[in-house]
């Protein structure tokens, strides 16, 4: 059973106060002696100021049991640009995240959601997912499943928010915390090592973080929210296993034809080279996430804007044979797709996405896709969250949601540790986090990875079998569809 | 009951995504329930292209089986062979063939232009004026020799997708070019050999089923097919480039041997010549026999000896032909 973070018992043990004193002493000492600068001691040092790292800092500050902790957050990029982010209604960033209801619930509890501008958030009730080879389709639509819209039932599948928007909201929330975390941005982690035994304090099992500006931070608990190639994970000697998909994800923001007549849906078509998805944004905007081979991504990026738009429209309408062929064309895609669409049968919106009219300039970007899972999430005075612990294929839009789930679980473990008077850095305190998160994350990673493999087949016996499976799910036999949808909403 | 708020989706058949336009019911002011009536013999959906006849699966199976049986009995029924081709090409094979064309730049261009081969689109007098070694001249001399015309090909009706129907049409119209480029005549033996070649090249089931008519030809022809022409057809059809991806209209002036080399096709032993020689020999033998019989009125011993020598000779000739054919194939293999 999950307890709300805000209702955790507030019990400051004598031990916690004592260690805080230690930290204060150490901090003053470091100021005094100039010859060998002692590290400044923090209860928690978070490496990485991405959405997961910021959510962690905000959650620690919001939960009563942990709000007194001395927290530092280190980020290599300039956070000022995120803090000063000024949205314009006719532009949406290309990097967006889908927040499932359980993630939004946590963000509400930690007081972040009120800083998110609702007019720039697009929620959707339905998903259309289909097979690029056989057109076998599964339709996830709560309203249809429940027989019409119902009062008091939240039928939202997910909310689409721009990454920068979420980070902006998180920073605003951090501003209003009573005990603000120390934000150190534009600074890289130079080195992580264990401390030394001095006359005052034994820091031999404390990680000491040396920053690019020469600053040294001693952490009672060092948390790595530092992404796939996590320096914290490397320091902890935790192996991360997985593989490179040899696929890149192409993102872009589009203007689409007026879709006000239809409900907002998310669309995903599984092509053998990888899934292509169109995600809804407010107004006549939409976002693309197209996973395909690096060569094809390079081709998509090199196309003229109108050819690129034609290519994306074709990706939801034409056969894979045609799409594959179009990837060989350097120009004239508009012409070619016009002809192919005139002789190809495809359904109308809202079964497929609305036609894209233009791509916003400078929003075409890509990143490589990996599947990676750390052997452990914790070590002595070490914890890993988000991508540092697990990197997932983005087809299900679960990367950040899993990261926020980690944050929730880790903060709960730390709070429990504090309330029981334990050292927050000990693996004994962190153990519940690891045991709560490892298996669900592993299952999610495995599921998405198998989907990737299953849909990678262009022909062969698995193609009809997967289509049969999809048809069974779509018919909601054995309540399979309801089960899947409710799992996806709370994973 | 009529539903006043029927959306555009309600007019679309969910199985085939075909628009269900209620023409008859509109005219007769029948209740809208007929809109939702499924595809039946009495309620055939509108054609996807002019001349298209949508078929239900039992209809399709019946036509396929019927045409297969009758065309096996009477192989001169070209219409039934065409029908067999159309009814068995769906659901998988014709789409695969279409995709093969779509993957090839020339095949794609053909699908875009959708050219038809008729005596209007091809100027036969011009083809006759071309040098003898060109594809056009080979094609037209082949037409003249066989006494056929490009217009003898019937329209495709039972393929559901308009583009796939064109692929079938194209295959059918180019069939004469395959005869020309392989040099196989339109006698049964040549047709069967060419069909097997096409099967290896296109994968259309009808062409493969045609191999069964080997059972109905004479024994010596069957032996020749099995030992010489089938191995040639399978090997060449398999490794040659897809013949549907050749824009025949554009290569009419090309050297036929150059084209064969480009496609990777070896010329099979000239079937017409072989058959003519065998016939000639047989006629000569028969003539000799008649003479002998006329000379020695009732000499059974001599006649028996003659019969024996005739059978022996035929066998020897057969072996000789096979040996020659194998030599050609071996030489081609070494190349």
Automatic annotation (TrEMBL), chain A:
Molecular function GO terms recorded: 2-methoxy-6-polyprenolphenol 4-hydroxylase activity; 4-hydroxy-3-all-trans-polyprenylbenzoate oxygenase activity; FAD binding; oxidoreductase activity, acting on paired donors, with incorporation or reduction of molecular oxygen, reduced flavin or flavoprotein as one donor, and incorporation of one atom of oxygen
Compartments reported by the entry: Mitochondrion inner membrane
GO annotations of cellular component type: extrinsic component of mitochondrial inner membrane
Domain FAD-binding: 43-437
InterPro entries per the UniProt record, alphabetical: FAD-bd (IPR002938), FAD/NAD-bd_sf (IPR036188), UbiH/COQ6 (IPR010971), UbiH/COQ6_monooxygenase (IPR051205), UbQ_mOase_COQ6 (IPR000689)
Highest taxon of the lineage: Eukaryota
The keyword Transferase is annotated on this UniProt entry: no
Keywords: FAD, Flavoprotein, Membrane, Mitochondrion, Mitochondrion inner membrane, Monooxygenase, Oxidoreductase, Ubiquinone, Ubiquinone biosynthesis
Listed pathway(s): Cofactor biosynthesis; ubiquinone biosynthesis
Annotated signal peptide: none
Cofactor(s) required for function per UniProt: FAD
Record's bilayer topology term: Peripheral membrane protein
Reaction(s) catalysed by this chain's protein: a 4-hydroxy-3-(all-trans-polyprenyl)benzoate + 2 reduced [2Fe-2S]-[ferredoxin] + O2 + 2 H(+) = a 3,4-dihydroxy-5-(all-trans-polyprenyl)benzoate + 2 oxidized [2Fe-2S]-[ferredoxin] + H2O; a 2-methoxy-6-(all-trans-polyprenyl)phenol + 2 reduced [2Fe-2S]-[ferredoxin] + O2 + 2 H(+) = a 2-methoxy-6-(all-trans-polyprenyl)benzene-1,4-diol + 2 oxidized [2Fe-2S]-[ferredoxin] + H2O
EC number: 1.14.15.45, 1.14.15.46
Family listed: Belongs to the UbiH/COQ6 family.
Subunit structure: Component of a multi-subunit COQ enzyme complex, composed of at least COQ3, COQ4, COQ5, COQ6, COQ7 and COQ9.
Job of this protein: FAD-dependent monooxygenase required for two non-consecutive steps during ubiquinone biosynthesis. Required for the C5-ring hydroxylation during ubiquinone biosynthesis by catalyzing the hydroxylation of 4-hydroxy-3-(all-trans-polyprenyl)benzoic acid to 3,4-dihydroxy-5-(all-trans-polyprenyl)benzoic acid. Also acts downstream of coq4, for the C1-hydroxylation during ubiquinone biosynthesis by catalyzing the hydroxylation of 2-methoxy-6-(all-trans-polyprenyl)phenol to 2-methoxy-6-(all-trans-polyprenyl)benzene-1,4-diol.
Protein name: Ubiquinone biosynthesis monooxygenase COQ6, mitochondrial
Classification of source organism: Eukaryota, Fungi, Dikarya, Ascomycota, Pezizomycotina
UniProtKB/TrEMBL annotation, chain B:
Membrane topology reported for the UniProt record: Peripheral membrane protein
Signal peptide: none
Entry keyword annotation includes Transcription: no
Pathway: Cofactor biosynthesis; ubiquinone biosynthesis
A GO cellular-component term linked to this record: extrinsic component of mitochondrial inner membrane
Record Pfam families: Coq4 (PF05019)
Stretches assigned to coiled coil: 299-332
GO molecular function, one term: 4-hydroxy-3-methoxy-5-polyprenylbenzoate decarboxylase activity
Cofactor: Zn(2+)
Protein residues bound to Zn(2+): 175-176, 179, 191
Reactions catalysed: a 4-hydroxy-3-methoxy-5-(all-trans-polyprenyl)benzoate + H(+) = a 2-methoxy-6-(all-trans-polyprenyl)phenol + CO2
Domain of life: Eukaryota
Keyword Zinc: yes
Compartments where located: Mitochondrion inner membrane
Annotated keywords: Coiled coil, Lyase, Membrane, Metal-binding, Mitochondrion, Mitochondrion inner membrane, Ubiquinone biosynthesis, Zinc
Functional note: Lyase that catalyzes the C1-decarboxylation of 4-hydroxy-3-methoxy-5-(all-trans-polyprenyl)benzoic acid into 2-methoxy-6-(all-trans-polyprenyl)phenol during ubiquinone biosynthesis.
Subunit architecture: Component of a multi-subunit COQ enzyme complex, composed of at least COQ3, COQ4, COQ5, COQ6, COQ7 and COQ9.
Family the UniProt entry places it in: Belongs to the COQ4 family.
The protein, known as: 4-hydroxy-3-methoxy-5-polyprenylbenzoate decarboxylase
Species name: Arthrobotrys oligospora (strain ATCC 24927 / CBS 115.81 / DSM 1491)
